[in-house]
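Hello,

Our lab assistant flagged a job as stuck in the queue for most of the afternoon. It eventually completed. Since we weren't sure the result was trustworthy after the delay, we are filing this so someone can double-check. Below is the sequence as submitted and the structure that was eventually returned. Let us know if re-running is recommended.
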Amino acid sequence: MKSTLRCSIIAFAGLLASAAVLSANLYTFTLPLSGLQEVPQVVTPGSGTATVTLDSETNELTWDVSYENMLGTLTMAHFHGPADFGENAGVLVNMNPDLGSNTGTIVGSATVTNEVRDNVLAGMTYINLHSSEFGAGELRGQVIPEPSTYALLLGLGALAGVFVWRRRRSV
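-- returned structure --
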């Protein structure tokens, strides 16, 4: 009986935590940028990282991108989509970067459409940094949910399953 009560309390806490996670409006993505992700791939010493945040209720998309050592100087930066890995697509959001450097940061935000929001959440968008050396793009990174988010949701789902199983067993 004590074991069932303890398991029920733990499962209930897990359900509350999962409800909080599932009702959260803020999604954060961290991604590397490289020439190897370009289609076709480009050889460059350049690299970068990006942190992207999306509020699914207000559709506010924010980004903080750092890049360095590009062969060319920055000419444009965009979110593209819908596209999976290995696919190219049109521009969805212009990042309005400061141009003309091969090392720097791009920080900004935009309110996006529901369609763009859905593409971001589905992992069907990418960031592309275009340069004077590679007009189609020198650095690219796919915006995808982090595996830890999926692991958390699966773990909470399993905890809820234990709660249901224990409850049925005790009836």
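-- support follow-up --
The delay was a queue issue, not a problem with the job. The result is valid. Strands lie at 26-33, 47-55, 60-68, 74-80, 91-94, 104-111, 125-131, 139-143. The CA atoms of residues 162 and 168 lie 10 Å apart.
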